[in-house]
Design brief:
By secondary structure, the chain is mainly beta. A five-stranded mixed β-barrel has the order 3-4-5-7-6. A three-stranded antiparallel sheet has the order 8-9-10. It has a domain at about 15-90: OB fold (Dihydrolipoamide Acetyltransferase, E2P) (Beta Barrel). It has one helix and ten strands; from the N terminus they run ββββββββββα. Strand 6 and strand 7 form a beta hairpin.
């Protein structure tokens, strides 16, 4: 099997990789966080290591927190962009267990949460997944993942930094 250059110059045999979108300053590209497990010969244990790469996203469909499928480009597009976005597997907030096909909230199935709420009685202020708006309906109100994000290095009341993290 032929290997292709991958993340951080490591040889890889995988053509497709699953990663998570994180905030990025690049236009028409998303920064992707790829988890890897590195084996330590001395301890005989695997340790989690995060690799980062940039994937080409010309339509700007990916948002921060989405789990996406990326593909290695045959040639580098730029010095940083080495992959392209194939599809969004799970948008943030809409995770589905791949084995059962049920929607998940945290570490519990949404169906189980609804059953527990019905057994003990629903509260008026409790969250209802069936009535919740879909993602994207709260843009510019509570959801600012479509805005360019940047790191806030100082606090100045004369220069507001609304999208700084």
């Amino acid at each position: 099997m032929a290997t292709t250059p991958g993340v951080a110059g490591v040889k890889q045999a995988a053509k497709y990789i699953i990663g998570k979108c994180i905030p990025s300053w690049k236009t028409n590209a998303v920064k992707v966080q790829i988890p890897n497990f590195e084996y330590d010969e001395n301890l005989h244990m695997h340790f989690r290591r995060l690799d980062f790469c940039y994937a080409h996203d010309p339509d700007k469909t990916c948002k921060t927190g989405d789990l996406i499928l990326i593909e290695v480009l045959p040639e580098k597009m730029t010095r940083l962009i080495t992959h392209k976005v194939v599809e969004i597997l799970f948008p943030t907030g809409n995770f589905v267990d791949p084995i059962t096909g049920k929607k998940v909230a945290g570490s519990k199935y949404r169906d189980n949460i609804c059953e527990v709420n019905e057994m003990y009685g629903k509260t008026e202020t409790g969250f209802d997944y069936n009535k919740a708006p879909s993602r994207g309906s709260l843009e510019d109100k509570k959801d600012f993942t479509h805005k360019p994000s940047y790191r806030k290095y100082y606090e100045d009341p004369n220069k507001p930094q609304p999208y700084g993290i």
